[in-house]
Amino acid sequence: MSNIRKYAFDTEFSPEGEIMREPSKRITPEQVQAANADAYEKGKNDAVAQAERRIAAALEAIADATSAVLTRLDAESHAMRTEAARIALAAAQKIAGAALDSYGIERVVQAVEAAMDGLRHQPRLVVKLPADMVEQLKPRITLMCETHAYASAILVRADPGLKNGAVVIDWSDGVIALDPADAARRIEELIEAALAANEAH
After folding, report:
1. Is position 37 within any domain?
2. Model-wide pTM > 0.70
3. Is residue 49 situated within a structural domain?
């Protein structure tokens, strides 16, 4: 028993003198604490990096969802503007139709008065009207000739193709045509062009 000795972890050499094993180094408590702190920092950095990756993925998903919502809202907004424009146009046409029924004759009278004032030098004006307006307007046109001191001839003709509120005034050098249906078509075309331009932008 007296031959037993503690293993000293000394350096071992081969018969040729090469180091086969060096003695184990002692690890101090400070080294253990430093290793623990280093491992803690690495773990924390890995957790932060993982959290940052999750946040980046979540932000990307939110951006995609927001883009989809904005695209949908833009499409719905355009559809609502289009529908509103069509409703407004339909309402305007109904109002215009009712106004023409009530004041179509006055519109024609104003057009004839303007022609008398602007075409005073013309020897003759031919006024074409819807058939149901001719008899109502002949006496008023005669009166207008007197009040405007219009000496040229005005011939009033019925045109079955004209609707209420429409009038065509012919003279030797040209023609004026006021057609509510044509005006409504032009307004509709302008609205369609504006909506198409808005959609393009």
Report:
1. no
2. no
3. no
Per-residue pLDDT reduced to its tens digit, 43-92? 777 777 787 888 888 888 888 888 888 888 777 777 777 777 777 766 66
Buried b (16+ CB within 10 A) or exposed e, 40-64: eeeeeeeeeeeeeeeeeeeeeeeee
Cβ atoms 165, 132 nearer than 8 A? no
In DSSP terms, which residues pair with 129 in a beta bridge? 158
CA 170-173-176 angle, 5° bins: 40
Q: What's residue 62's pLDDT?
A: 84
Residue 142 lies in a domain: yes
Taking each helix axis from N to C end, the angle separating 29-118 and 180-200, rounded to the nearest 10 degrees, works out to: 160
Please write the tens of the pLDDT for every residue from 127-144.
Answer: 888 888 888 888 888 888
Q: Is residue 173 domain-resident?
A: yes
**95/99 Cα distance (integer angstroms):** 6
Separation CA 162–CA 156 (nearest Å): 14
